[in-house]
């Protein structure tokens, strides 16, 4: 599997706006939380999972998310290819992150909020890997 954007959309009429994503299947989601960075200068990274899958959706503002597929978890190569995605709250798009990737997350607008969904409960498995923010740079 590769990371991909699952497109959402919106509909506006006299009553207001409805944001929807009819192509996102949430049946495997077991946990959710929201990230709000203190400033747009902060980059949360690098963190990822061998087993766990994640889904990201901007519920306010916008985010730049970098993803890297890890080759060796104990000491990854430093020159791995980074995929970059920008997601925003204008449509309810969802970024799917399969197992085997680490991510970096940066808010583009002040006050942005990112909904994070995972397919495992907190503490259910030992599958969290963290690397310094400048490890892959």
Helical content band: under 10%
Q: Considering the protein shown, what is the CATH homologous superfamily?
A: Jelly Rolls
CATH architecture: Sandwich
Number of helices: 0
Notable traits:
Jelly Rolls, 137 residues, 48% strand
Can you tell me about this structure?
It is a single chain. The chain has no helices and 12 strands. It is mainly beta and 137 residues long. A hairpin with a 2-residue loop joins strand 2 and strand 3. The strands form 3 sheets. Strands 1-9-6-11-4 form a 5-stranded antiparallel β-sheet, with no helix packed on it. The two termini are 25 Å apart.
Summarize the structure.
Helices cover 0% and strands 48% of the residues. With 137 residues, it is mainly β. The chain has one domain: Jelly Rolls (Sandwich).
Q: Topology, please?
A:
Layout: E1 4-6, E2 9-13, E3 16-20, E4 31-35, E5 43-49, E6 54-60, E7 62-69, E8 82-88, E9 94-97, E10 101-107, E11 113-118, E12 129-130
Antiparallel strand pairs: 1-9, 2-3, 4-11, 5-10, 5-12, 6-9, 6-11, 7-8, 7-10
């Amino acid at each position: 599997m590769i990371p991909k954007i699952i497109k959402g959309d919106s509909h506006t009429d006299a009553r207001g706006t409805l944001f929807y994503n009819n192509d996102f299947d949430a049946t495997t989601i077991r946990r959710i939380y929201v990230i709000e960075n203190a400033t747009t200068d902060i980059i949360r990274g690098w963190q990822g999972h061998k087993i766990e899958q994640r889904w990201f959706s901007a519920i306010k503002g916008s985010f730049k998310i970098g993803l890297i597929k890890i080759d060796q978890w104990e000491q990854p190569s430093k020159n791995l290819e980074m995929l970059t995605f920008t997601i925003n709250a204008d449509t309810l798009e969802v970024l799917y992150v399969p197992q085997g990737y680490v991510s970096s997350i940066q808010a583009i607008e002040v006050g942005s909020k990112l909904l994070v969904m995972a397919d495992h409960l907190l503490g259910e498995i030992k599958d969290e890997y963290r690397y310094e923010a400048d490890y892959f740079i």
